[in-house]
Amino acid sequence: MTARSTLTTGLAALVMTLAMTVTGQAADMALRGSLPAHDDSAPNWTGFYGGVQGGIGSMTADTQAMARREAERLLNGLYYLNPPSGVAAPTFINVDPVRGTPVMFGVFAGYQAQFEDAVIGFEFDYNRIASGGGGARTWTQPFAVLYAQTGFTDAFSQSTTVRASLTDYFTARMRAGWAYGRVMPYMTAGLAIARGNTSVSYRAGYQRIDTDAADAVDWTQAYGDLVNSTRSSNGVIGFGFALGTGVEALITNNIFVRAEYQFLRIPSMGGVPVTLHAVRAGVGIKY
């Protein structure tokens, strides 16, 4: 084989190799173009972190069930209204929920790991209610017929005052986010433990009204209490769950800020269901 033919064969092999390389790169670029690219130069979100936070919320405590249970306990099922149907007196109780606008502050800590752009981890937080964590509601029933008899009628009345307040709560949650460089939106869900105070006052009594002035008997009897009680429970504990969503942004590779919405549901805190919607802002350090 001559030197010229050898050179020609070598050039042809080089051209074919370059063509195959370019074709492979073009195919790879086409495939990558259909997927979100992972930026290897972006900050890494992996590591332990902690910080402080504060916010404001909207709380609702459904105290009606607690008021009815207290009335049933004290009356012991003995008093009925609207005869002859005989509806139990506690059934008439209709207390509005206790509502509050709690201002809160707290701390958070957790660990997360980044897998390309996906970030998964767990987080704990403790939140103290500084103000606005509860209130009171009062309900009074006008006199209603308890017992009607020839010559007189017994008229029954009842009232209740309920109080509920949230003092602090703790959550343990999983987190899942998606990193866009220095910004990461995320979702979170987990368990919650809440602590608070409850109180219920219940009073019921009747008066006797003379309905026949001609029977020579004065049946009139001034109002008197059948029951009058106040019961309080402080530091009661309730278990529930917490859900949330938020976004974090790295100011430096180690310092970040966050904004978050959290939903908290406690089915029973001392017999009172509690719901909390909170918006919070915080700042933290990632290690």
Task: Kindly summarize this structure in a few lines.
15% of the residues lie in helices and 63% in strands.
Percentage beta strand: over 45%
Structural class: mainly beta
Largest sheet: 8 strands, antiparallel, barrel
Fill in the CATH topology of the largest domain: Porin
**Termini, distance in Å?**
67 Å
How many structural domains are formed by the residues?
Answer: 2
Unreliable spans: 1-8, 24-35
What is the strand tally?
Answer: 12
Shape call: rod-shaped
Mean pLDDT: 86
Percent of residues in helices:
10-25%
If you compute it from the alpha carbons, what radius of gyration comes out, rounded to the nearest whole angstrom? 35 Å
Oligomer: single chain
Strand ordering within the main sheet? 1-5-6-8-9-10-11-12
Query: In CATH's first tier, which class of the largest domain applies?
Result: Mainly Beta
Order of helices and strands: HEHEEEEEEEEEEE
**Tally the helices: what do you get?**
2
- What is the name of the CATH architecture of the largest domain? Beta Barrel
